[in-house]
Structures are given as structure tokens and as C-alpha cells.
Design a protein that fits this description.
The chain is of the alpha/beta class. It has a domain at 11-157 and 178-203 and 263-297: Rossmann fold. Helices cover 40% and strands 20% of the residues. Helix 2 packs parallel to helix 4.
């Protein structure tokens, strides 16, 4: 299966964004992570080990919530952005030698999980900024043990609908790349080797006091990765016009500027490896180990 469009993403711009070191987790990402961790109550089996993928943008506060839910589980932390971000994550999550928590629960492990995988992989608000989401899903699938599960969230296509309509009306290039529908995420999960995907969505409306505050929040959430985005730098005159248009068109009750964000939530399980029978069967050592573990579990 080839990479589907949408998302309509410039891969060079996506790589540049991924390499940028965030200074802190965005508020919206923390809130989405808080809501997503409440869904862990649906999972019957607590993980013995889990992986937190890109926690700096996904939510460092949420990391503490999951660690509290699974205090005896080993956590493998994978930060794929810049070395500066990796150092910041280690500084934030590593426990000092004098902390009593060092003796009560396993310390975080930084780097990819071991070959036998983890029982849960947590990836909050990452997929919609990836130029190759199926390749990213495949990495997550490889990091999981058989029957382990993925918990993820991302932005959906109804995000920033007010801004998209405004830009289209004014004849401006799109303010953001096209975002993928939740049903397409479900199809991609199947092709990445997952089973039993469950995907749903909700809409969150955020309000801002000023255009400046609105744009500052959007800069923290991501960048416009659309290949047809404006290629150069905008001038102060265009910026001033943008501020005025936002104030005039997005202002609601009390003068607050409102923007819609569609949040997609999903989880899926890693399927056992498929062994094809054509007279002669060849399986890798890793596949054989997975099959033995599955039979013992049943």
C-alpha cells in the first residue's frame, strides 16, 4: 500500500519541524494526553513495560499520569527530535539519586525498547506531523510485543476549519496541510500489522483573547507543512492585515477568537505474525519466538 494523500505534507519541512527542539509540551497536547490516559481503564491487562514516544511534544505531565497508573511497569522513553530535546527529556524524567521514587518504581530507560518489545506504546499528537505516517506506524509495531497495543492521538481534518475557510475566501494559500480522516488511520493500522483498531474523535473549541495569542499558540502546536504554502516571508503589512481579519471574523461573544480542533483517538493491537503455508514454511527466529509466546499465553 502506497502512502496515501492526505496528509499533504512537504517531507523536507516535516523533517525540519521534527528536528526543532521544543522548550515545553504544548498545553493542548497535555490536555489531549490527559483525556487519552483516561481511556486506559478500558485495557484489562496492565503493561509490564511501555514505551513513551516523543514525550516532549506529546506531554511530559502526561508521562507522570501514566507512570502513576502503572507504577511497577518499566518505561522506555524514545525522543526522536533533536539532541537538545533528548537531553531535556532525560533531565525532566530522570530521577535524582536522592529521590525515594528511585527505590519504589523502575527508573525510565532512554532509547528503543528491547527486541522482545513492550506491551504498550504511547504516542500522543505525533501522526499528523509525519510525512510518512505508515512508516512511523511500522516502527511502533516493531517496538511492541505480540498482542501489545498502541495508544495514539492526532489532529483530524476539521481542525482549524475557521482559519481554512477564511484563507480560502481571501485567496491565500492554505494555512496548514491536509489532515487525515480517522477512518483512513484505521486502514493504515491494518496495513502496518495491527489488528482490532478502534478510532474515534471529538472536537475541542479553544478561545483566545487576541490574534497575537492565537498565532503564538498555533506556532507551538506545529507548522504549515503544505507544499503549496507561501514560499517567502510575509511583511509587516500582511501581518497587520491578518491580525485585523482574525479579530473581525473569528471574534465571538466577549470578543474571544474561537478555533476548532478535531482530536482523533485510537488504539490497536499488534497482530501475531502470519505464517504462509505453501508446502515449505520459513519463519524467522523472532517469529518463532512470538508464536511460542502466543501459544503459551493461550
Amino acid at each position: 500500500m502506497s502512502e496515501p494523500l492526505p496528509p499533504t505534507i512537504d517531507p523536507v519541512a516535516a523533517t525540519r519541524w521534527q528536528a526543532m527542539a521544543a522548550r515545553e509540551s504544548p498545553w493542548l497536547h497535555e490536555e489531549v494526553a490527559r483525556r487519552m490516559q483516561e481511556r486506559l481503564q478500558w485495557m484489562v491487562q496492565a503493561p509490564a513495560a511501555w514505551c513513551h514516544w516523543d514525550p516532549l511534544r506529546g506531554g511530559l505531565q502526561a508521562h507522570a499520569l501514566i507512570a502513576q497508573r502503572y507504577p511497577q511497569a518499566v518505561c522506555h522513553v524514545v525522543e526522536t527530535s533533536s539532541p537538545a530535546a533528548q537531553a531535556l527529556v532525560q533531565e525532566c524524567l530522570a530521577r535524582p539519586w536522592w529521590s525515594p521514587a528511585r527505590w519504589k518504581a523502575p527508573a525510565p530507560q532512554f532509547g528503543l525498547p528491547p527486541q522482545d518489545g513492550v506491551q504498550m506504546l504511547w504516542a500522543n499528537m505525533a501522526l499528523h506531523m509525519s510525512a510518512q505516517p505508515q512508516a512511523l506506524m511500522a516502527r511502533w509495531q516493531r517496538a511492541l510485543a505480540v498482542d501489545g497495543y498502541l495508544m495514539f492521538s492526532c489532529l483530524g481534518p476539521d481542525t482549524l476549519r475557521e482559519l481554512r475557510e477564511l484563507y480560502a475566501e481571501l485567496g491565500w494559500t492554505p494555512p496548514g496541510h491536509v489532515l487525515t480522516d480517522m477512518h483512513d488511520w484505521g486502514d493504515m493500522l491494518y496495513h502496518a500489522g495491527f489488528t482490532e483498531p478502534v478510532v474515534d474523535m471529538e472536537r475541542i473549541v479553544l478561545t483566545f483573547a487576541t490574534p497575537e495569542r492565537l498565532l503564538a499558540e498555533l506556532r507551538g502546536l506545529g507548522r504549515n507543512l503544505h507544499p503549496q504554502r507561501f514560499a517567502g516571508l510575509r511583511g509587516r503589512r500582511w501581518r497587520d492585515r491578518l491580525h485585523q481579519v482574525l479579530a473581525d471574523r473569528l471574534g465571538g461573544e466577549g470578543g474571544q477568537l474561537a478555533l476548532t480542533f478535531e482530536i482523533v483517538y485510537g488504539h490497536a493491537f499488534k497482530a501475531p505474525p502470519r505464517v504462509q503455508s505453501d508446502g515449505t514454511t520459513s519463519v524467522s527466529l523472532e517469529q518463532m519466538r512470538d508464536l511460542i509466546r502466543t501459544r503459551r499465553a493461550t
